[in-house]
Predict the 3D structure of the following.
Amino acid sequence: MTIQETQEQIVNEFDQFVEWEDKYKRIIDLGRELPSMNESYKTEKYKLSGCQSQVWINAKLEDNKIFFEADSDAAIVKGLVALLIKVYSGHAPEEILSSPPEFVKKIGIDNHLSPTRKNGLGAMMKQIQMYAVAYKTLATRNKT
């Protein structure tokens, strides 16, 4: 499934909920469904700055696809990072870099988060993109 298809799937899923309370519950559930992150990555090296909560993101490249793992100590934030991982994990760096998180606006998350959580979501997306840039650069260097 492409990044765009996954985003459309998320938008369709969240369109089923009328109340924001239900959307928040779904976001929290997605966080609970997130696979456990290896404890060895819960260090300062993998911790995001710009988030009020603690958030860790790690990535590995396999067959020119980036696979992300993450965790957070806050339920909603963990759900937000789970959404981003659902969209971007398992895709090539180029695809990640050319696919903005359109689902965020389409489901209205950006209008229903506190300013600090909104900044945190931006920091998470930026970190995912930074991993994509790094792996794309590494792949380019290895070709020459």
The first helix runs from residue 3 to 15. The CA atoms of residues 86 and 129 lie 14 Å apart. The chain has one domain: 3-143.
